[in-house]
Amino acid sequence: MNVILWLIVGLIAGTIAKMIMKEGGGWLNSLLLGIGGGLVGGFIGDLLGLDRGGFFWSTLVAIAGACLLIWLFRVFSKRR
Question: Residue 4, Cα to own-chain centre: how many angstroms?
């Protein structure tokens, strides 16, 4: 899967991940989180050999990546 598709799907996935993780923030936060989640999820999926393609699978991977980013942010921000 190419990086451009990760970004496009990530824009949608960021909002869904924020709802799942009950994270606040505005629309810009959703967009950046979704893009980062798409990149992280796509990269990890490729490393694990889970690249199945398709919109639905890509969206699930991006949501999982965005949730992972939210979780990591919470873990590291609590230590300060």
Answer: 14
Bin 2: left if φ > 0, else alpha if -120 < ψ < 50, else beta: beta
So where are the chain's domains? Answer: 3-78
Question: pLDDT tier at 1 (50, 70, 90 boundaries)?
Answer: low
pLDDT digits (tens, 9 = 90+) for 11-48: 788 888 888 988 877 777 777 888 888 788 878 888 88
In SS3 terms, the chain reads as CCHHHHHHHHHHHHHHHHHHHCCCCCHHHHHHHHHHHHHHHHHHHHHCCCCCCCHHHHHHHHHHHHHHHHHHHHHHHHCC
Q: What is the CA radius of gyration of the chain?
A: 12
